[in-house]
Write the structure tokens for this entry.
Amino acid sequence: MVECDVVIVGTGSLARSVCAALARGGLTLSVQVLGRSRERAQEVATIAGGCCYSGSGAVRVTASPCEMSREGLYEVLAAFQPRVVLTCSSLQSPWELHRDRTAWTETVARVGLGLTIPLQALIAFRVAQAVAAQSPATIHLNAAMPDVVNSILAGGGLPVLCGVGNAQTLAAAIATGLPTPNSGRLRLLAHHFHLRRPHRRADEALAWHGGSRLVDVAARLTPVRSCAGPRRNRIAGAMCAQLLERLLSDVPYYGNVPGPLGLPGGYPVKITDATVRLDLPSAVSFEQALALNARWSRLDGLGCVNQSRVQLCPIPGDPARALEFQSLLSFDVSDIEAVCEELVEIRTRLSGQISRRSRNGHARAASPTGAQPVELRSDTKTMPSPAMREAIASAAVGDEQSGEDPTVLELERRVASMLGHEAGLFLPSGTMCNLVAMCLHLRAGGEEVILARQSHLMRSEAGGAAVICGAMFNPIDTPSGIFDEEQLRAAIRPPDVGAPRSRVLAVEQTVNWTGGAVWPVERLRGVTGLARVADLRVHLDGARLMNAAVALDVNPAAFTALCDTATLDFTKGLGAPLGAVLTMPGRDVARAKRFKRMLGGGLRQAGLCAAACMHSLDHNIARLPTDHANAQRLARAIARVPGCSLPPHGVHTNIVLVTVPDAARFSAMLRTDGVLISQASSTEVRFVTHLDIDEESVSYVEHVLAKYNLLRTGGRGRTDRVPTARESR
């Protein structure tokens, strides 16, 4: 028998975070990491070893390969007899469901997250069997969807003390804003469901501090909800390490954990002598706490366990969607191996032909082998995430055209407040928003709109303002699409009976066709101030407004409050399938609604669409810096390719505009290697990053571009640093 304190099953981001946190702690421990890949397990151990230098303890982390079969786990636990075993592995990566777009992930989005629970549970189930058979004194902690999987383990009579993550992570986020750790005990009732913002306030997690109910839970959880899953695992890893240290030191643990005693969801607990006791607030009974978590589990599309019977559930409100998978959603715990075998076969069939990975680990593209391409043509190509689809499915709706849709009304109020205007109007697209704005500002045919020649309003909206409003365009030529007061002054026409009258100044934020260039606040303040003096109305086309705000680290109202009207489009970097809001003074709302109806923009149960937009505001703004960083990485790789050049104003946000000798040929070359880009002109192409482009995708494109570089220059090339928006101001 080999002496070992902790066995960690898995090599993902949570296992890494736990090992690193233990290594920085103050205990002397022996930790064994088990992974299906020897290399990945060794990598986790090596990283943890490096972290030991910053800690005061002596943690020895070693790695062993393990196939995660029942026999393999039996053998390992019999050999190590650890004091604690932590399951961090499953047959279904949660990140795949949000990152990949395959027939499998679309099926999960359609049926519900419950379809994946057997795959989440199987390895934890095998670990628990091995503990019961080979190491009964070992404490078992489970991190694989513990809010429901722990109930499956308990239903099978298998050992599990509690889960880690989820409720721990949410409690840590709430505790961050509390006065001091000694000011009172934090008690939290929460579920995996609460890692996303519930659509209804009544379904929010419940928290008490020092005996008093916290009323601002949603606000306290907003930062952690905007974090990507692997980053949240850093918090979960630290909280799990704290629990492990208490268990190994025989020190009582007071905290909030998922799945204690095999219960669904998360609860406040006290753990002493490897025994869990619930530590509920006095205002809540056990029955009430259990009922709340059972409800949240249903809303999460998961389900429940009744003794040994597992009853998973489809997306709430539409059980017919799951009819074809009924035998996989309702089964006895003892049948989990057979259920997983069938699910793996289905998953392989649905996703095997469009796998994101090639043999070298990079994302692959459409080719005779049928792999999925890296989609860089536009940020409008994103697909709704499962969480967004859930928000759509549960949206409160009404007749929008009659002003009776509550979700639309809430979205309009929220966006108007965010942009510093009195009112908002929900419309199907940013193009319609721009056209309604022109209808508001232009009073008669022959009036003129001053704008950049490269602006979307002039170049890509089918001349709608000219056709509907009789507008004339007076374009200003500038490489970046951003002009100054002198250029605007030269464009404003003096009164002349024979000339069009300058009436509207239109600016675009960011400027799409020049590579996402950002209007600096002071530059915009200067031109809008001059426009006021000249009695011009000002409209801001905010197609990628939030990208600009994030790039300059300012409130979006810093731009929009300078304008009479503004558009916020949700279908670009924010990732919604459709929808935009036009904001304006309250006096213009009635006319704007009439123009909306005139243009065919009146809607019915539009809350389904508005819910997606609300979800994007809650979850997709904080992640925009990732898109910008990915664009910078692509720009640096492109700069090293001979024959490619970047615009002199640099790469500001998520669009990389590239000048090439032959855009069609360059696009075709990349398409052959599975990278899709768009042609902006015969000599310009665009790479656009977005929420469906992850680090793996960027690494693959870098790999492809480096190949072109090697073919043409033997590996030599420029490594120029690309200026960002803040540096270009």
